[in-house]
Amino acid sequence: MAEIAEKAGVTKPVLYDHFGSKDGLLAEVIRRAGADLRVALETAVGEATSPQDALGRGLRTYFDFIEMHAASWTVLFSEGGGSPAGTQALEDVRRDQARYIAALIAAEISVDRRDSADVYAQAVIGACERLATLRTTDPTVDADTVASRLMDLFWLGFSAQRSAAG
Fold it and tell me: Residue ranges of the alpha helices (H) in the chain?
């Protein structure tokens, strides 16, 4: 906290007043990173010309974002850096992302399958997190390949769900 306070140009008591604890500071960092990721995803998906393009852009944006913040996200993927507040903040980010992804999926699949959108969203999040972790342990696995292979896998399933809606 002393080093952070010094770099921020404030005193340690100011940090503790604002965040309460190291855990509170970590939780806020996670929340902000999650919000930044959400904005990046919304921007990328908003520029898409089709559902398939939206999925591809979303996946690529996710892996690019994680790569740009690799050191931070490696800690966060280890369940919030071991902090209860960090773990809760990470779960809140996941929950927010799941709602966003589920809404996108629900808009594209048949009405009788929309109750599955939440499950599909969780699968997208889980797969992305595991592959992001794989990329930190195996640098030969590049973001383009991961996004492309995951796109192939997901699009097979989502296109079948979309066909059933038509």
Answer: 2-8, 12-19, 22-46, 51-68, 70-77, 84-106, 117-137, 143-165
